[in-house]
Design brief:
GO terms for molecular function: inositol bisphosphate phosphatase activity; phosphatidylinositol-3,4,5-trisphosphate 5-phosphatase activity; phosphatidylinositol-4,5-bisphosphate 5-phosphatase activity. It holds the Pfam family SKICH. Belongs to the inositol 1,4,5-trisphosphate 5-phosphatase type II family. This protein is of the alpha+beta class and about 450 residues long. The longest helix is centred in the first third of the chain and has 14 residues, at about 140-150. The chain has helices at about 15-20, 40-50, 55-60, 140-150, 185-190, 195-200, 205-210, 215, 275-285, 430-435, 440-445; strands at about 1-5, 30-35, 65-75, 80-85, 90-105, 110-120, 125-130, 170-175, 250-255, 290-300, 310-320, 330-335, 335, 340-350, 360-365, 375-380, 385, 390-395, 405-415, 420, 425-430. About 35% of the residues are buried. The protein folds into two domains: about 1-260 and about 290-320, Endonuclease/exonuclease/phosphatase (Deoxyribonuclease I, Chain A), CATH 3.60.10.10; about 330-445, Immunoglobulin-like (Sandwich), CATH 2.60.40.2840. The chain contains eleven helices and 21 strands. The chain has a six-stranded mixed sheet, with helices on one face. Strands 13, 15, 16, 19, 20 and 21 form a six-stranded mixed sheet that branches.
Length: about 450
């Protein structure tokens, strides 16, 4: 998990350290929350059509490692991206994203929160990336903004309609809490000598947790790293401007494991029984345990493009899977090429909310996101044969890449907002007709790179 206020800078050339790409053990999931992504008028319009530079870089680096971007959401400068190893994708369901503005009395999105919620092997997870009010004196306002975001964000999900209903919540971002009372000289000495613990008691977030119940259920690892704000750009030197802002741990990662529901005889001294929702939560907690451990919590000091340093957290989740079978199994029927119409065969393995908006996408092996398909076909519109166990879907030869390549098929369920089945890789054969006619590959192949800038 990464949080970084990038201060409108474009991404650096190398983010290997940021993503721990050289780590001997690859993570299953990446969650990346950025703040102050550049959102000037021209860039914001282009980013609405094309991937922003940060998303593009991260997808291009992670796709070859067999990660795909499952979901993302942006609100002005706030950007949240969720990546998963391909093997987990059919078990990530009910994906939804939302946002809350808190800037300019709730009308402006320079401050606020963006979130992605989903079900991971049946366990409900929510990721909340926030950028809260700045300046030393606004600690209480930051808590108020956080409470407002928590109270107002809702999801179309019976199991977890609000953030606190989720089994596990991660809260991170530029939360902007400062170190109060201590003077600049004392703070700098503690940093130079790495006596960070002497500053903890005056960290505003730690102080607010002692009196604000909404914060008390959130856990955080020890702040055993340098405060991540404010630095002179392109340096490791704290603010030397006229303002000389005091260093602070503004950039944080916290988590909340949903409190376990108590059995009826322990619910309270009045012995009031559990309602149906809490009873179901109790049964879920007992049958499908979920544990979390934080393995790493630190800043990455080598990056200097911003006045903030990025913060990363590495977590281990221990869970019992509620399901291990995808909702759909699908495969390419027979040989595929642009010379003949093709057929997809799929079988529902479990009931799921299918609709006329479901589609099957053809993807190049190593695709980067759900939207990175070569072509797609509507499941209901193009069904040619149907029984209870096996369904055939037609794909026109006009939609098949002429030069061929290694591909996979993915079934996208509109109701669940996710891919619920992925085929084994298969070979799309090069078109013999196209080869004989000497057709130009850049005009005919969905797998080719875009044509040159002059042609564009």
């Amino acid at each position: 998990m990464v949080t970084w206020n990038v201060a409108t800078a474009d991404p650096p050339d190398d983010v290997t350290t940021l993503l721990h790409l050289n780590s001997p053990k690859n993570p299953d999931l990446y969650v990346i929350g950025l703040q102050e992504v550049y959102s000037g008028p021209l860039r914001f319009v282009s980013d609405a059509v094309f991937d922003d530079p940060w998303s593009y870089l991260l997808m291009s680096l992670l796709a070859p490692q067999k990660y795909i971007k499952v979901s993302s959401i942006r609100m002005q400068g706030l950007l949240l991206l969720f990546f998963s190893k391909l093997e987990h994708v059919p078990f990530i369901r009910d994906v939804q994203a939302t946002y809350t503005r808190t800037g300019l009395f709730g009308y402006w999105g320079n401050k606020g929160g963006v979130s992605i919620r989903l079900s991971f092997y049946g366990h409900t997870l929510c990721f909340l990336n926030c950028h809260l009010a700045a300046h030393m004196k606004y600690a209480s306002e930051r808590v108020d903004e956080f409470e407002y975001i928590m109270d107002t964000q809702s999801f179309d999900c019976k199991r977890a309609p609000t953030i606190v209903d989720h089994r596990l919540v991660f809260w991170f971002g530029d939360l902007n809490f400062r170190i109060q009372d201590h003077g600049m000289h004392f703070v700098r000495i503690c940093i130079d000598k790495q006596n960070y613990s002497l500053l903890w008691s005056k960290d505003q977030l730690i102080m607010m947790k002692q009196k604000e119940q909404v914060l008390q259920e959130f856990e955080e690892g020890p702040l055993d790293f340098q405060p991540t704000y404010k630095f002179d750009r392109n340096s490791d030197t704290y603010d030397t401007s006229a303002k000389k802002r005091k260093p602070a741990w503004t950039d944080r990662i916290l988590w909340r494991l949903r409190p376990k529901a108590l059995p009826p005889d322990e619910e309270n001294e009045n012995k009031v029984g559990l309602d149906a929702k809490k009873l179901k939560q109790l049964e879920e907690d007992m049958e499908y345990p979920l544990k979390i451990r934080q393995d790493v919590y630190t800043s990455i000091m080598e990056y200097s493009i911003s006045d903030h340093k990025p913060v990363i957290g590495i977590f281990t989740l221990e869970l019992r899977k509620m399901y291990e079978t995808p909702l759909v199994r699908l495969r390419a029927e027979g040989d595929w090429s642009a010379d003949i119409d093709a057929m997809v065969v799929y079988s529902p393995l479990q009931p799921f909310p299918s609709s006329t908006w479901d589609w099957i996408g053809l993807y190049k092996v190593g695709f980067s996101s759900v939207s990175d398909y070569i072509t797609y076909t509507w499941v209901k519109d193009d069904e040619v044969a149907f029984n209870e166990e096996v369904i055939q879907v037609y794909v026109s030869k006009e939609e098949i890449p002429v030069q061929g390549g290694d591909c996979v098929l993915c079934y996208y369920c509109n109701a669940l907002k996710c891919i619920i089945g992925i085929s084994e890789p298969f070979q799309v054969q090069a078109s013999k007709v196209a080869i004989e006619e000497g057709m130009l590959p850049e005009r005919i192949n969905g797998l080719d790179k875009a044509v040159s800038g002059d042609d564009f």
